[in-house]
Amino acid sequence: MTAPLEGVRVLDFGKHVAGPWCGALLADLGANVVRVERPGGGDDRFVSPVADDGSGAMFMVCNRGKRDLTLRAHDPAARPVVNALIGWADVIIANLPQATREAMGIDWPQVQRINPRAVLTTATCFGEGGPYSGRLGFDGVVQSMSGAVALSGEPGHPTRCYAPYVDFGTGSYLALGTMTALFVREQTGRGQHVEGSLLNTGLITTNRETVERQVRSIDRQPLGNRGQIAAPYDVFTTTDGHVFCSVIGNRQFARWAEMVGRVDLRNDPRLLSDAARADHGDELCEIMASWCRTRSNDEVIAELSRFELAVGAVYRPQDVLDDPHVRAIGQLVDLTYPGTPTAAPIADFPITLSETPGGAQRRAPTVGEHTDEVLAEIGLDIAEIEALRNAGVV
User: Fold this and answer.
1) Can you tell me the distance from the alpha carbon of 277 to that of 285, in angstroms, rounded to the nearest whole number?
2) Are 247 and 309 in contact (CB under 8 A)?
3) Cα angle 290, 291, 297; round to 5
4) What is the β-pairing status of strands 153-154 and 242-246?
5) Which tens digits make up the pLDDT trace of 169-219?
């Protein structure tokens, strides 16, 4: 069976993570995705370089499966090419400020005029309509402004999450919105503007806390790794490393109490609910810490697993690469990029479809690798392409 999005043509003007990640997910599902970057390569290509040409790890993750077209899209001489590309595309992705999109000719009125069937998928940091709409921002800004940073880390030391979950979450929501717009287009024949923002994504991830605050005036404070909704719930030290364990619900708590030899805690009137146990988290986490302190990681994981409790080792990147389960499920796909000393372990499409599976089948492109190929597809001949190249447009 063909891939779900086979035949869908996507232009990706995205930068850094959110827009490109949306494009990568569509490529995993079979879409023909063309990454557009300026001649010489965009700034996001060269973050955390791992290849001889300077291409970085995040670029390889977020641009797998795409072709690459170089184009100085802001140049007035590029406008006929941009217009032709819009006419060619089913989807245009651009996580760029509105003013930038307008200058490039990829704002919604322009896209609608040229190709009424096209879907324009955009994202900014703060979205449109509010006093911050014109401001720039990245993942860490929204982690901070959504309340996550204030509630992470130790008291007095707000801590950002190392992994850019706001960026990846936004890209995933954009892909969902784009797929929905394509589905609706099959019924109406018309495209639409799909808009997302990092702030919207951030507000979703901390919505539990804003609900608590407004409904019950709960004012949570950071507790490091210790959980705030149940206990024991923390990172614990073992004889040879660290593990994370969380005990949620009365049945799990009863099994945990048996495991640590404290069955008396099951009927302790102070500990009859998750919320009550969270209020006594220091005491319960110390019991768990003492129990873990004399055991190895493997011993702790084996015993908690036997009692059907959630547990996992605290891994560094090499531990992830070495983990037998990670390798067994085949989620890391080795893709070789020119000029890297070894293949890059690219995380595959995260959802399994039984009939039409997607996947990261092809490495990220080199700078301008498919420029001539793509321009020929939209009708330019060899002489026209060479003229654009001589003018520095491509």
Assistant:
1) 10
2) yes
3) 110
4) unpaired
5) 999 999 999 999 999 999 999 999 999 999 999 999 999 999 999 999 999
**Distance of alpha carbon 132 from alpha carbon 136, whole angstroms:** 9
Reported as half-sphere exposure (CB side, CA atoms, 13 A), residue 394 has a value of 25
> What's at 133, amino acid-wise?
S
**For residue 129, which amino acid is it?**
G
Q: Is residue 200 within 8 Å of 133, Cβ to Cβ?
A: no
DSSP secondary-structure letter at 56? B
Amino acid at 3: A
- CB 316 within 8 Å of CB 162: no
Say whether pLDDT at 29 is over 80: yes
Q: How far apart are CA 149 and CA 218, in angstroms?
A: 17
pTM score > 0.85 for this model?
yes
Beta bridge partners of 236: 243
CA-to-CA distance for 23 and 86, rounded, in angstroms?
Answer: 16
8 Å CB contact between 192 and 119? yes
What is the Cα gyration radius of the chain?
25
**Residues 6+ positions from 72 with CB-CB distance below 8 Å:** 38, 39, 78, 392, 393, 394
| Residue in this structure with the two tokens 């006929």, named with its chain if needed | 80
Structure tokens at 383: 């002489």
| Phi, psi angle pair for 322, to nearest 5° | -90, -10
* Residues in contact with 316: Cβ distance below 8 Å, sequence separation at least 6, in sequence order: none
In the three-class reduction of DSSP (H, G, I as helix; E, B as strand; rest coil), residue 141 is classed as helix
Longest alpha-carbon distance in the chain: 84
